[in-house]
Amino acid sequence: MPHAYASTLKSFKTATGKAGQFYSLPELARQYPTIARLPVSLRIVLESVLRNCDGKKVTPEHVAQLANWRPNAPRTDEIPFVVSRVVLQDFTGVPLLADLAAMRSVAQRLGKDPRRIEPLVPVDLVVDHSIMVDHYGKKDSLDLNMRLEFQRNRERYEFMKWGMQAFDTFGVVPPGFGIVHQVNLEYLARGVHQMKGVASKDAPVCYPDSLVGTDSHTTMINGIGVVGWGVGGIEAEAAMLGQPVYFLTPDVVGFELTGQLREGVTATDMVLTVTEILRKHKVVGKFVEFFGEGTRTLSVPDRATIANMAPEYGATMGFFPVDERTVDYFTGTGRTGAEIERFEAYFKAQGLFGVPGKGDIDYSQVVTLDLGQVTPSLAGPKRPQDRIELGKVSSQFSSLYSLPNSANGFNRPAETLDTRFPVTTGGREVTIGNGDVLIAAITSCTNTSNPSVLLAAGLLAKKAVEAGLKVQPHVKTSLAPGSRIVTEYLTEAGLLPYLEKLGFALAGYGCTTCIGNAGDLTPELNEVITRNELVCAAVLSGNRNFEARIHPNLKANFLASPPLVVAYAIAGNVKRDLMTQPVGQGKGGKDVYLGDIWPSSDEIHKLMKYAMKGKAFRENYAKVASQPGKLWEKVAGVSGQTYTWPASTYIAEPPFFQGFALMQGASTAASVKGAKIMALFGDSITTDHISPAGSIKESSPAGVWLKANGVQKADFNSYGARRGNHDVMMRGTFANVRIKNLMLPAAADGSREEGGLTLYQGGGTGPAVKMSIYDAAMQYMATGTPTVIFAGEEYGTGSSRDWAAKGTQLLGIKAVVARSFERIHRSNLVGMGVLPLQFKGSDSWQTLGLTGNETIDVLPVPELTPQSDAKLIITRADGRRQEVTVTLRIDTPIEVDYYRSGGILPFVLRQLLA
């Protein structure tokens, strides 16, 4: 069938005269004149819709709808966005590869060619989440940690090697190269892709890079003008297998930056300020696009730092258009001359080159920040959007100490704030008290891709060492950069030895502390914290600080710039006010203040020449294929088109295709009758709470199962590393040590028991029995009793964890009723055949007076019309009935199809095998 918009296929030439073709938005604008005022991010999406308009998945109506976007129109249209590629990190990548392998097994059992199951777009998996900080502070820490990593993860890495040989379009960046987002920014993103022209003699058709990734912080790539965001593994799988990514036409918030940062203020301070502002503007599900004079002055690493934290401010993207600085970044990171030339010529031909000024674009709303108003800041102690000015950290911690939990507080008696306890740890006598920094980590994609803040940390370390300062002995220090390039420029600038002297020795290349892979504290420290209920702290240069994420025993977690991480490691306690009190005592007992050791912007700028050397980037990333490392080379993977599933506590054939038939039978029933309540949750239940990624507790259902299968506690590894085994993951669902099920009665002081517990209501007329959510789920499922969950605002915020939805489904939970949902988790629930329902107006489970012993019926309209009204019928224990109207949060027509098919995976598999 001819392309509906064939007339928009035009030619362009690069600076050296090379020809290319492109689907021209300026040409399309002849028909739809408002395209010229569309946000840049929407125009890039429009190009994909135009180029992929095949009359089936993507229709001319889709092109017209998006070309006619209005800033404040009702959002009812669904965009089918075909992405150029998919990127995975290993925690989410392994279960996704397991699903692909299971699909091939199904194909083989049905007598079909398993090779029909093949990613239709390039897929790159970067192994970055498996390294843990077991060893730290010494020169051989990296080597020791990597040996442990390979020992623990051998079965997973063998499985990845099978995937590399079984699938043509699936590549792996082995452990030890860096964090997925920084590798994506520095290496995987090529700017503009090419495909064959319509006729064999034609110049290639060029199109912009775009992607989805299985990590929320995929948005970091928006810093170089690439449209992309994080999705759950479930949606990524569909994108890999040729399905468009469907999403509702978004509002686009324009964020105007003016002025420039003051002396002594870092990119991290800027991003924490942006996060706080945008959270208040409620940008969940919206695109945010940066424009204005201040935006033009920002370097690409500064832009990427802001883009990275889009999940923390709640936006789908934090987008920066392409300009001269993007071109400079491509040059500095070693892209080829031909690629850079094509990239610049393409964006100029499309009219998409340059950061728009005030009034150039029609946005849904505009937010403004004068960069000159940004001050040194941290965020915490429990959420990334809770910014605190550096001078107020001490007083804020002290006031939160005795406030109730619900107010971000710690609910401890005020008079115990300053008590300290002696303890011997690591052969040294120390005293430990509230506010002590026990983990100080330079980690995470947000900051380690930004040379300005890493050079600042190195310079601060140099000045601190020269002044005679030392890190407090109770602090676990680590440096885990996002790429090997970081170590290279810190070494060349002469700064690494000073960081090492303060304990910030290289511990690994990967997502360590931020994902919960900080490694354990010493048993003595754990014991003194838990026995005395101390509120101790972690300070990290990461992007996530939710409860129990960094370490189960550290209740206060602060996000900070890398230089502030070093400063707090020296100070040793967050109760020390670094704006007025000395950081520590140096040579001769002299007080040393933060101002004495803080680097100037001139000092940082002088060292930037070491950070952007194209040759170094090219040589480093050439090793992915040629010298991946001896540890990786020793990993032996099985060969063949289908996987032979071994008995393993890491990888198991997932149960999502049990009983699969090529012809769809009875569709998933939308109504839920006679359901029991599994949990009543409050606000801000994160995917960490639902599907934890940190350590596995010995007494938890997952720990008990592992021990029963012959795994010693020392070999438990983490939930994230075991995501390829559903038996572990479903037992870990709702098993977070900090989750509070408000069905459980409150204690006399108003506090609630923590941990994944519920009151099982299935014992007839007898009293409810307290047990783990997993055990209760198994008992309910054994009797065919469906269950539902009730929650408050922002249910499912945090990392894009497909297992938060997969685990919910495997526990027999049929519906989640909440005040509001996070974007990715809501779509993942639908993708696994679980109904998301949203309360209307001021309704909540609290206003309805639910206690947990009620029986629930859910009755949506039979057609499952997107966002239609559904009925909730509540039957009280005394037989009284109440009917409540809620909104069905199946948002788009394609989601109706997914839900009716029993989920997105059976839906896609039927299409591939049909």
Task: Give the biggest beta sheet.
Answer: 7 strands, mixed, barrel
Main sheet: strand order: 26-29-30-31-34-33-32
Average the pLDDT over all residues and give the rounded result: 94
Q: Find the count of extended strands (DSSP E, 2+ residues).
A: 34
Give the termini distance in whole angstroms: 21 Å
Helix percent band: 25-40%
**CA-based gyration radius:** 27 Å
Strand content: 15-25%
Regions with pLDDT < 50 over 5+ consecutive residues?
none
**What count of helical segments does DSSP give?**
32
Here the CATH topology of the domain at 672-913 equals Aconitase, domain 4
User: What is the CATH superfamily label of the domain at 672-913?
Assistant: Aconitase, domain 4
Outline: globular
CATH class of the domain at 672-913: Alpha Beta
CATH architecture label name of the domain at 672-913: Alpha-Beta Barrel
Structural class: alpha/beta
Describe the structure.
The chain starts with 8 loop residues before the first strand and ends with a helix. The strands form eleven sheets. A seven-stranded mixed barrel has the order 26-29-30-31-34-33-32. The longest helix is centred in the N-terminal third of the chain and has 26 residues, at 141-166. It has 32 helices and 34 strands. Strand 29, helix 29 (802-810) and strand 30 (813-818) form a beta-alpha-beta unit. Among the domains are: 6-81, no CATH class; 249-320 and 355-375, Aconitase, Domain 2, CATH 3.40.1060.10; 377-584, Aconitase, domain 3 (2-Layer Sandwich), CATH 3.30.499.10; 672-913, Alpha-Beta Barrel (Aconitase, domain 4), CATH 3.20.19.10. The protein is globular, with a radius of gyration of 27 Å. The protein has 914 residues and is α/β, with parallel strands linked by helices. Monomer. It catalyses: (2S,3R)-3-hydroxybutane-1,2,3-tricarboxylate = 2-methyl-cis-aconitate + H2O; citrate = D-threo-isocitrate. One of its GO terms (molecular function) is 2-methylisocitrate dehydratase activity. Catalyzes the isomerization of citrate to isocitrate via cis-aconitate. Residues 75-572 form the Aconitase/3-isopropylmalate dehydratase large subunit alpha/beta/alpha domain.
